[in-house]
Amino acid sequence: MIKYLKKSKLFSGFDDASLEKMLTAVSLKTISKGEIIFYEKDQAPAFFIVCVGRVKILKISPEGKEQILMIATEGASFAEAALFGGGRYPATAQAMTDGKLLVIHRDRFISIIERNPSIALNLIARLSELLHKLNKLVEELSLTDINTRLAHYFINIIEENKLAEQDNIVITLSEKKTVLASLLGTIPETLSRSFKKLSKEKVISVNGAEVTIVDLEKLYKFADE
């Protein structure tokens, strides 16, 4: 399990001795596509790191509408806030694919970080990053239109993967339109119209799951609207 801890963003940079200490708090869980890992308001005895596969974190409205808050991919952790949030999960987590998770058990983990402050600092940094992303999501959903949100989505991928210097920027969509629509706070039909809008404006071109950025400068302008 140490190899998975090393690949995680939360524990990257830790030496083997520090990671060995973590093993007493860790177990491995196999998940199946569609499986609910936990529901919102369930008791929260653990948080998780994705070893293999993808997991979506979502809220479901009383009307049954799904809003995806984030998609955790390999190396990402999720539900850390449950450690300090009153003992219950603030959202639902569902497996998008078959996969494997590291389960970090709350009580044992807290005992470890009490003796190892450097681990606590990493956790604080991760929670700060998560809070920033959620604040940004709330701001975008409340203050921007779908064209702006879609432009931001592409820009985030470009910046995270350092693609801006490439002559030909091609993004392969890893999510289905229904999932991407939920992530961006809209419905598939509206998202399709936004793709057509950006294509008509010669900002992007779309070929199946591949999106080519035709004009990066225009893409940034759309994101600033």
Largest sheet: 4 strands, antiparallel
Query: How would you spell out the order of helices and strands?
Result: HHEEEEEEEEHHHEHHEEH
Which class best fits the helix and strand makeup?
Answer: alpha+beta
The name of the CATH architecture of the largest domain is: Sandwich
Radius of gyration: 19 Å
Structural notes for this entry:
By secondary structure, the chain is an alpha+beta fold. The chain folds into two domains: 2-142, Jelly Rolls, CATH 2.60.120.10; 145-224, Winged helix-like DNA-binding domain superfamily/Winged helix DNA-binding domain (Arc Repressor Mutant, subunit A). The chain is built from eight helices and eleven strands. It has helices spanning 2-7, 16-22, 106-115, 117-143, 146-160, 177-183, 188-200, 216-224; strands at 26-31, 36-38, 46-52, 55-60, 66-72, 77-78, 92-95, 99-105, 169-172, 204-207, 210-213. The strands form three sheets. Strands 1-8-3-6 form a four-stranded antiparallel sheet. Strands 2-7-4-5 form a four-stranded antiparallel sheet. Strand 4 (55-60) and strand 5 (66-72) form a beta hairpin. Helix 5 (146-160) packs across helix 8 (216-224) and helix 6 (177-183) crosses helix 7. The radius of gyration is 19 Å and the shape is globular. The model has no long low-confidence stretch (mean pLDDT 87).
Write the layout of secondary structure elements.
Blueprint: H1 2-7, H2 16-22, E1 26-31, E2 36-38, E3 46-52, E4 55-60, E5 66-72, E6 77-78, E7 92-95, E8 99-105, H3 106-115, H4 117-143, H5 146-160, E9 169-172, H6 177-183, H7 188-200, E10 204-207, E11 210-213, H8 216-224
Antiparallel strand pairs: 1-8, 2-7, 3-6, 3-8, 4-5, 4-7, 9-11, 10-11
Helix pairs in contact: 3-4, 5-8, 6-7
